Amino acid sequence: MTSTARFDLTIDAADKDIISRAASLMGTTLAGFVRSAAKEKALDLIDRDSRITLSQRDFTAFASALNGAFTPNAALQSALTASSQVKRA
């Protein structure tokens, strides 16, 4: 079961007329149109906010670091050695 919440909005008459006309063109109610448009815009903004954008230089450096040779530090090397000794036992 989904819960519902009320949201009141006050807009001027000219804006309401424009939105009402658009809702009519979409074959939906004013409330349905506003709900759909607001949700679409919100999801777009959330999606954009969750992305990381790199310059070409930064992307090249990042890709090189991922694709380059990896040498484990002392702590990781110790853990790998201990792990392989446990497997042999």
What does this structure look like?
- It is built from 4 helices and no strands.
- The protein is elongated.
- It has 89 residues and is mainly alpha-helical.
- The longest helix has 20 residues, at 30-49.
- The protein has a domain at 10-67.
- It is 69% helix and 0% strand.
- α1 (13-26) packs across α2 (30-49).
Write the layout of secondary structure elements.
Elements: H1 13-26, H2 30-49, H3 56-67, H4 74-88
Helix pairs in contact: 1-2
Summary tags:
single chain, 89 residues, mainly alpha, 69% helix
Quick summary:
The protein has 89 residues and is mainly alpha-helical. The chain has a domain at 10-67.
H/E element order: HHHH
Q: Helical residue percent? A: 55-70%
Shape: elongated
Radius of gyration: 27 Å
Terminal-residue CA separation = 54 Å
Number of strands: 0
Total helix count? 4
Largest sheet: none
